[in-house]
Specification:
- The protein is of the alpha/beta class.
- It has 11 helices and 6 strands.
- The chain has a 6-stranded mixed beta sheet with strand order 1-3-2-4-6-5, sandwiched between helices.
- A hairpin with a 2-residue loop joins strand 5 and strand 6.
- The radius of gyration is 23 Å and the shape is globular.
- It binds uracil.
- The site of uracil has 12 residues, from helix 6.
Length: 266
């Protein structure tokens, strides 16, 4: 009895410890056993003979965060005639550091004929693994929220469908917020993406897409206030991840969903 209870406790404790590490952002196991690197002595290396010393070489091409990166994004995005072209153009774009740490390009999901396009921030861990936007907990809440007004990413009917994409197609490390430079270099792709899908309405969820669309932050103040960007009516809403942490804010989100529904009917 005592042994069974101990095994059960250990199992639950181990599971809780693992969940805690996943929450902290640990994504991969590198070694079979833990290794405390602070306890390792620094190896003292003898100097290399002159002939074997490394010669300085030109550094590998560094991702640029300048106007050059934005110009390259404008050229690449501008030449995309279809959504497949645009996905290909993003896959070939080398100016964004985030690409190097990501497993997958997360392009979009849903019905490209939808009247409503949802623009999110950036993929998280689950999205990075699966290559689809909003598939984690926040994504499940997003699906439930829009289902409440009859919209779904699975619907073949453009009037009931959603198309979902993000400002950033690559996961930022530790889910940090994308930088101003990263948002600026992705903006031409977002603009082209919206032009190709040509929805009636764009819903921006969170500060990153609010910044990409309207060049402002402060989603808690801006939510529910219709604006115009990318040649479309834009509705700012709080991000579902925020609603998971602040369930009381769901009341305002519901008001925003009703405002969207009225706009689509009107
Ligand atoms: N949050 C986002 O903004 N986008 C995703 O795809 C997932 C979580």
């Amino acid at each position: 009895m005592g042994i069974t209870a101990d095994i059960a406790t250990d199992w639950h404790a181990a599971l809780a410890a693992l969940a805690w590490q996943v929450d902290l952002g640990v994504g991969d196991v590198v070694l079979d056993a833990p290794l405390n690197r602070y306890e390792l002595a620094e190896p003292v290396k003898p100097p290399l003979p002159e002939a074997e010393r490394p010669v300085a070489v030109a550094p590998p091409p560094k991702a640029t965060t300048s106007t050059a990166a934005i110009a390259a994004a404008e050229t690449a995005a501008g030449s995309a005639r279809t959504l497949d072209d645009l996905r290909e153009a993003l896959a070939l774009y080398e100016h964004c550091e985030l690409k190097r740490g990501a497993r997958n390009l997360v392009f979009a999901d849903g019905n490209p004929k939808a009247r409503v396009l949802i623009l999110g921030e950036a993929p998280g861990r689950e999205e990075d693994l699966e290559g689809r936007p909003f598939v984690g907990r926040a994504g499940q809440l997003l699906d439930r929220m829009f289902a409440a007004i009859g919209l779904s990413r699975q619907s073949p009917d453009p009037g009931k469908a959603l198309y979902i994409t993000n400002v950033m197609p690559w996961r930022p490390p530790q889910n940090r917020d994308p930088s101003q430079d990263e948002i600026a270099m992705m903006r031409p792709f977002v603009q082209r993406h919206i032009a190709l899908v040509d929805p009636d309405v764009v819903v921006v969820v969170g500060n990153t897409p609010l910044q990409a669309a309207l060049n402002i932050t402060g989603i808690l103040r801006q939510r529910g206030r219709w604006a115009q960007a990318f040649g479309k009516p834009v509705l700012p809403m709080t991000h579902p991840a925020y609603l998971l942490r602040n369930p009381a804010a769901k009341r305002e989100a519901w008001a925003d969903l009703l405002s969207l529904q009225a706009k689509l009917r009107g």
